[in-house]
């Protein structure tokens, strides 16, 4: 208890002056402010993480399965050990191309390089039994990918190398950019197998002209990729150019070539990764005035990597009969002399040397010729 004597305050034993009490209470204020700021900081961090996570989910269309599929794709590519167990996935093209585009940074040193045979077709593969015979005994050196109409349900026998090799596909229309989309989709799916080193595009009407060993050696030992890219001043070449493609693609850059190609892994990644030239072709190269499958890859790859192109295709096609489609060959025309003329009838450059071995594949073959080709495959093709 406190008493006063005049103007002097007298404190009893153990009593603390009021102003000291106030001072002691004020000593707790900085600590409380620190705790307040700490809690505020934790709250902001939590809010940021929540918003980021929400944003990621939005990017992936709220589909947890697609997020997991894409993450599994990236993680598998990082491990560089084995190809996908299945070609079925739920990635859209953007996610697929993004994943495939990261597949060139590092390759396993112990891999066995393979050729990816990519079949672009609307439906059945009537000549697949001949390809079965061609592939026989070479399982470690090739892989197969099929892009067909999304409504087509294949019925290959489980013993066939084509069984289960259909990729998630979309409609591809002749002469339109959707055809190039299908080609890029095939390349992207094939890039997910890090053992695939070379990528060959063929159709349901294509056949091999040589045995597997010859084709594998020819492709694997080539210093260049096989894609035609010609600067042709004609209505069907430069005449299809649209001035709206400037400045990304100038008239002097415009090229024409065959749709059927063979690309190295490096060029395949460039095709899948491209987001610079693609929009120009999508909006300014349209059917009836411009056929994107004849111009997009020849022009784009000439701009990006001209020194890596042999500037010719490995697929023999006969355009001599005129019209928008090449000649179709059936049993009566498919003789030993015919194939000999195709294989030995021209000369070309291969690794800076002249050779007569210019074509590895032929298009187009009628389905009715299958039995004839199977019975003469050793005579015609060496297998």
From TrEMBL:
It comes from the Eukaryota. Signal peptide: none annotated. The chain crosses the membrane at residues 33-54. Keywords: Glycoprotein, Glycosyltransferase, Membrane, Transferase, Transmembrane, Transmembrane helix. The keyword Cell cycle does not apply. The keyword Ligase does not apply. GO terms for cellular component: membrane. It is found in: Membrane. GO terms for molecular function: glycosyltransferase activity. It is a single-pass type II membrane protein. This is Uncharacterized protein. Its main location: membrane.
